């Protein structure tokens, strides 16, 4: 009697951004093996990012960093039930095609890998798999959204163990949005149009963001989160969730650190809970002063 | 009249979307209902109903367990779960992780991620007991079988995708899709059921 004769549609933007909505309030962890993926799932991660090396090792190794070996990705997919994400190089649409063919749940077009195209990012609307992209400010975020990104994350400075860049990017994005809201409040259409030109995006997207007072997609923090307090700090600054790259498996006790970060994100506005989560974690990953870094990953792909 | 309070389990998932949908549903029904996020034991006291959102059921279970509210949730008389929330309500779950438990309140068997990975996520029009709606299935679970006390509210092809159960004065509603992304009719329905449990008469104007 309820028999459904309607057609099913796949790969729509609502489905892509919808998956990101389901990840909100969660922690997404970088993993390089099936064993690490299991630790992440047991700790309560909402998704894992399958990689060959975590960002701090990519940084240390130097050279060209590329998409992970499919064997590695498949092994991780088989080991957990939560969504599995993987990274491709900026602009490298064939790596993205491969990741889509492998049925990863989300593709990260990532500055952590070496840039493949300095002029164009991937046309993400052409894919049925959703994409997440890094951004340092509102202009970058909106360009990625117009290219079809279903989720945005701050770039931060991956593999640095230093939260300062992620903070800068969260705040830059917010002040960008506030500026648009103020133009809209004063009905200053000229300024809104100027912003569209400056950001190289459509006026429709500018008006939408001004009206919403936030990005039209989910926005996570990433790049430099090393402790439960770092993660809760980003949440209190207003992001929807966090990516933790090197921060977990470069700490002295990854199992404890993973669980502690999940707990502190779930209770991000409760200092006592964050205190509890932060107890006896051993050493956090070694952090670096940004001025000492020879490669600034966040400056890739703007 | 005492104000009814509905909670949304708020650790993770599409919590804001449910908050919004529940508030809009209450407004449409002209009901003065308070909708609150639920994270700690104190939040659960005096809840008339609880909504468990979409997200990852493994994560939701772990956070409830660590906070010590997992057993307490079972005391809430009316619970509405979408996607991961439906998994949380089920008595039997296939493909759960070894350490995962569910509330085991509804007499249904459900298979996690049964439709496949994200590429197999889909949207479609569905016919339900409450009317036709657009339904969004994101890495959705599949209800494999239902007990005889379960009332089916919608099917897709031949599979149950929405159902309810009234048991010992409690009421449970489970959906494999995400009504919170497209409509408020299921939230309105849930509010009416809660009002029924509390013997309140809603003045409805459609």
Q: Which quaternary structure do these chains form? A: heterodimer
Architecture of chain B, CATH level 2? 3-Layer(aba) Sandwich
Category by helix and strand content of chain B: alpha/beta
Low-confidence stretches of chain A are none
Overall 3D shape of chain B? globular
Mean of all residue-level pLDDT scores of chain B: 93
Largest interface: A-B, 46 and 50 residues
* Topology-level CATH name of chain B: Rossmann fold
Instruction: Characterize the overall form of chain A.
Output: globular
Strand order of the largest sheet of chain B: 2-1-3-4-12-11-10
Number of strands of chain B: 12
> Percent helix among the residues of chain A?
40-55%
CATH structural class of chain B? Alpha Beta
Q: Total number of helical segments of chain A?
A: 13
Termini gap of chain B: 23 Å
Q: What fraction of the residues of chain B are assigned to beta strands by DSSP?
A: 35-45%
Short synopsis of the structure:
Chain A is of the alpha/beta class and 302 residues long. In chain A, 44% of the residues lie in helices and 12% in strands.
Report on this model:
Chain A has helices at residues 13-23, 34-43, 55-61, 70-79, 93-101, 138-146, 164-185, 189-199, 203-212, 228-236, 246-249, 254-266, 271-278, and strands at residues 9-10, 27-31, 47-50, 84-89, 106-110, 131-135, 151-154, 218-220, 242-244. The relative contact order of chain A is 0.15. In chain A, helix 7 crosses helix 9 and helix 8 (189-199) packs across helix 9 (203-212). Chain A contains 13 helices and nine strands. With 206 residues, chain B is an alpha/beta fold. Chain B has one domain (4-195): Class I glutamine amidotransferase (GATase) domain (Rossmann fold). Helix content of chain B is 25%, strand content 35%. Chain B has helices spanning 15-28, 41-44, 57-67, 70-73, 84-89, 185-197; strands at residues 4-9, 33-38, 49-52, 78-82, 90-94, 106-111, 122-128, 131-137, 142-146, 150-156, 159-167, 170-175. In chain B, the strands form three sheets. Chain B has a seven-stranded mixed β-sheet. A three-stranded mixed β-sheet of chain B has the order 5-6-9. Chain B is globular and about 45 Å long. Chain B starts with a strand and ends in a 9-residue tail after the last helix. At the A-B interface, strand 1, helix 1, helix 2 and helix 12 of A face helix 1, helix 3, strand 7 and strand 10 of B. Strand 1 of chain A pairs antiparallel with strand 7 (122-128) of chain B, so a sheet runs across the interface.
